[in-house]
Specification:
The complex is a heterodimer of chains A (660) and B (211).
Chain A (H helix, E strand, L loop, with lengths): L4 E5 H19 L4 H7 L3 H30 L9 H36 L7 H23 L24 H29 L12 H33 L12 H35 L6 H14 L15 H13 L1 H15 L8 H23 L2 H7 L3 H31 L5 H27 L16 H31 L47 E3 L7 E5 L6 E6 L6 H14 L6 H19 L4 H5 L23
Antiparallel strand pairs in A: 3-4
Chain B lengths: L2 E6 L13 H28 L23 H26 L2 H27 L9 H33 L4 H30 L8
The chains are: A mainly alpha (660), B mainly alpha (211).
Chain lengths: 660, 211
């Protein structure tokens, strides 16, 4: 540490902390009622809103899946019309990818990263609030469209020429394209927030090589978002402009190119899979360490595998396009890369197994979901290696085999770790434990239901059933397997229902969790459940990679941050040496108005290009007010009040105390 | 009597330039996003070029030039202006670091004027392309590239105006001095991106890449 250590009396510290606590509560307390909803910038509140919103979209997406399964449960069914079916499978995929998977895994990061790194808030809390509103507006836009029978109907990747102006007249695809813009803005600002927070807000002593694996996973995901998401914003932006102002990016008649769209989309779309999946790896590392009561085997190998996955993830996109005319050299290259990515994933799985091996396992629901993840994800990975080979891919392209594969990867790689994470962290968020019995029911219903739905789809795909057909003929012989899948869908849905009931029950009657119910190692477990608004009264000084397990009883603490202003400690990027007392912005209404201006720009922009001019002017006005509108700006600059130091260190320098 | 070791941070500053301040990271994160966006846009430009025997394509009119290459005048003037505008920005950047308020105000003022002139010149550059955005894919992509960069010019100029107004009417405080230095990074970035776009839009069509 560059700062000299001082020593203070424990009893005196306790007395002063008691007094400070009230001030901290007052300084960091959120506004009440409606103002809370529109202005509060606490990262925990925003993250919980993200999580609840994304979970509601997950339920919507699930209902759409159930409708599709009812329709496909028997041949020649007329439960849904072809047009409704198109809208529903498009909105299902769009919801699950853009409104559920990415927002919810990054939301867990927004909640937990500051707590894990010992920070009082994220680096840019108001931008965080803006990101949430933009995301919410995007979701409402999509579902307003669906309810008005204007739901997008060209698939979740909206390939041209089908989605272009000549084959998809009307506004359906425009709603899809602008919804993309909203959710991508939200993901992009979220990524910048995570990077800024992880690099600059860590507690002293938490050098980068002591960063919890969860935080590494979030950091690498954030970098992937930064390099991948602009591609899809461009793809949807160019598509919208082809549709609105007659540009010709994807119109072959005027020199445009339909394959270009696929490149732009999948340059985002494949990293997207890893953007969804890598945070899940972070959940798993946290859960495995806590329930094996063991340090993670091969920390360095784990971090390097995550980084390798992040890089290789950008070299796979063409394997979604093997059925298009691309040069054979290109096909071989992307086949090789697609197979190579199995290596870092394999390294991580072996590291977890090594961690679990020989540990006295504490098999609770979170760990069950992790074990379920192993089974499902390995199966999904195997079919992934199969699909990476061009001849096989050409044979089963656009069949139910692909549907089976992608659900094994995404549900196995993301949803199972996510449910494990819910069981693991909901005690921290709510202060109440979820029921273990219900948890086991939840797990087994989801695990059995999942395999019932998706395992038969491998066979259906091999039998030739194409994806995205609204029905099939009795002579095809696909009826039985489809019926099994449809029954499985309802078993799976029952599992999710058990979870919802479990959460509602636990909120009222669950056992009180206490600070650290799992005896886990990361810093979020050092504060109360739910954490106070300011997260940490005294910023801890981290002494090892496993902050809670390696902390000595006399671990130093940080003193001297203001209790009357929202101050956070800024530290250096590599070694987390204290550098600044940074004042974190508090509640503000302007992020909301900027999000409304953004909404005007892109929603009205579905109908007229002038909306972009008007929206830009409105956004500029709102941002100007954001810039000038802080009534407290005087306090923090000119008249720096001479703070009364809360504690004077005792005059006599004592020896380092030894407490055992 | 038990005691506790303490790191006292009450003497630390609130703001510091460059990588110390979270704002630097936020700004550069956003610039990384936009850099990937422009990189993908440039890839799109060359991808579309593959579909054309002649780039830009000929115009089917008797009086039209044989090869409707983009006119160099406005674009070159704008490039020179943008490169030169870095000088007041660098001086403003340095005086903000030193705390020289009047010099910073003067330089920010010059930058604001440069920004507005660059936007005005840009609106003539669209005409120099000889095609509309809806003529063909060539027209679409060059208009889009010019437009995206113009959007950044507008945001940049707005930001310069805001900081100029702030330093004229309110305190020349450390927080906003850090902002001015950060504005500098954005300014240099916008100019650098333009140098790439200028070379690509105006000069690569003059090369025959099919050799």
């Amino acid at each position: 540490m560059s700062q000299p250590l001082q020593h203070i009396n424990d009893d005196e510290l306790a007395a002063v902390m008691e007094r400070e606590k009230e001030e901290l509560e007052r300084t960091w307390s959120p506004p009440h009622g409606l103002r809370w909803w529109f202005t509060d910038t606490d990262h925990k509140g925003i993250a919980l809103r993200y999580i609840v919103t994304a979970f509601i979209f997950f339920i919507f997406g699930g209902i759409e899946a159930a409708l599709m399964r009812i329709q496909l449960s028997r041949p020649d069914n007329h439960f849904l019309s072809p047009d409704k079916y198109n809208q529903i499978f498009t909105v299902h995929g769009t919801t699950m990818m853009f409104l559920f998977a990415v927002p919810i895994v990054t939301a867990l990061g927004i909640y937990l990263v500051p707590l894990m790194i010992g920070a009082r808030d994220v680096a840019f809390p108001r931008v965080n609030l803006y990101g949430y509103f933009v995301y919410l507006i995007g979701g409402i836009l999509l579902y307003t469209g669906l309810l008005l029978n204007t739901g997008p109907d060209a698939g979740w990747f909206a390939y041209v020429p089908l989605s272009g102006p000549s084959f998809s007249p009307g506004k359906r695809v425009d709603i899809w394209a602008q919804m993309i813009t909203f959710t991508e803005i939200s993901a992009l600002v979220g990524a910048v927030i995570i990077i800024g927070s992880v690099f600059k807000m860590r507690a002293p002593g938490m050098s980068l090589n002591r960063l919890p694996l969860f935080v590494w996973a979030q950091l690498i995901t954030a970098f992937m978002i930064i390099f991948a998401m602009p591609a899809v914003m461009l793809a949807s932006g160019l598509l919208a402009s082809d549709r609105l102002i007659d540009t010709h990016f994807f119109n072959p008649a005027e020199g445009g190119d339909a394959i270009l769209y696929q490149h732009l989309f999948w340059f985002f779309g494949h990293p997207e899979v890893y953007i969804i999946f890598i945070p899940g790896l972070g959940f798993i590392s946290s859960i495995v360490a806590a329930f094996a009561r063991n340090k993670i085997f091969g920390y360095t190998a784990m971090v390097l595998s995550l980084i390798a996955t992040g890089f290789i993830g950008f070299g796979l996109w063409v394997h979604h396009m093997f059925a298009t005319p691309i040069p054979q050299v290109g096909q071989s290259l992307f086949t090789a890369a697609s197979m190579m990515i199995a290596i870092p994933s394999g390294v991580q799985i072996f590291c977890w197994i090594a961690t679990l091996w020989g540990s006295k396992l504490n098999i609770k629901t979170p760990l069950l979901f992790v074990l379920g993840f192993f089974a499902i994800f390995v199966l999904g990975g195997l079919t992934g290696v199969m699909l990476a080979s061009v001849p096989l891919d050409l044979q089963i392209h656009d069949t139910f085999f692909v549907v089976a594969h992608l659900h094994y990867v995404l549900i196995g790689g993301s949803v199972f770790p996510l449910f494990g994470a819910f069981y693991y962290w909901i005690p921290k968020w709510t202060g109440r434990m979820l029921s273990e019995t219900a948890g086991r029911w939840n797990f087994w219903l989801m695990f059995i239901g999942f395999n019932m739905v998706f395992f038969p789809m491998h066979q259906l795909g091999l039998n030739g059933m194409p994806r995205r057909v609204y029905t099939y003929l009795p002579e095809s012989g696909w009826g039985t397997l489809n019926l099994i899948a449809s029954i499985g869908a309802f078993v799976l849905a029952t599992g999710v229902l058990v979870f919802v009931i479990n959460v509602i029950w636990a909120r009222r009657a669950g056992a009180v969790a206490g600070d650290n119910p799992w005896a886990a190692d990361t810093l979020e477990w050092s504060v109360s459940s739910p954490p106070p608004h300011y997260n940490f009264h005294n910023i801890p000084v981290v002494q090892g990679r496993y902050a809670m397990w390696e902390a000595t009883p006399d671990a130093p603490i940080v003193r001297g941050l203001s209790t009357t202003k929202r101050e956070a400690l800024v530290t250096s990027v590599l070694d987390a040496e204290p550098e600044l007392r940074f004042e974190v912005p508090g509640p503000s209404i302007w992020p909301f108005w900027v999000s409304i201006a953004t909404a005007v720009m892109f929603i009205v922009g579905i109908f007229t290009p002038w909306a972009f001019l008007v929206g830009a002017i409105l956004a500029g006005a709102a941002l100007t007010a954001w810039f000038f509108g802080d009534p407290n700006y005087k306090n923090k600059t000119v008249s720096e009040p001479a703070e009364t130091k809360p504690i004077q260190p005792p005059p006599r320098p004592e020896l380092q105390p030894k407490e055992v | 009597m038990s005691t506790r070791a303490v790191i006292d941070v009450s003497e630390l500053p609130h703001h510091e330039f460059d990588t110390y301040d979270p704002v630097w990271w936020g700004n550069n994160g956003l610039l990384a996003i936009e850099t990937s966006m422009f990189a993908i846009l440039i890839a799109t430009y060359f991808y579309l070029r593959q579909n054309f025997a002649l780039w830009p394509p000929p115009i089917a009119e008797l009086t039209a030039p044989l090869r409707p290459l983009p006119d160099l005048g406005y674009g070159t003037a704008n490039t020179i202006l943008l490169v030169l505008s870095c000088i007041p920005m660098i001086i403003g950047d340095l005086s903000a670091r030193r705390g020289n308020r009047s010099m910073t105000q003067l330089m920010l003022g010059i930058c604001v004027i440069c920004g507005f002139v660059a936007i005005a010149l840009r609106s003539f550059e669209f005409g120099a392309m000889h095609f509309y955005w809806d003529s063909n894919a060539y027209g679409s992509i060059v208009w889009f590239m010019l437009g995206m960069h113009m959007m950044h010019l507008a945001v940049l100029t707005t930001e310069a105006v805001l900081l100029f107004v702030w330093t004229m009417t309110r305190e020349f405080d450390m927080k906003h001095r850090v902002d001015i230095v950060t504005l500098g990074i954005y300014w240099y970035w916008v100019v650098t991106i333009w140098l790439f776009l200028y070379a690509i839009i105006y000069f690569t069509p003059r090369l025959d890449l099919r050799a």
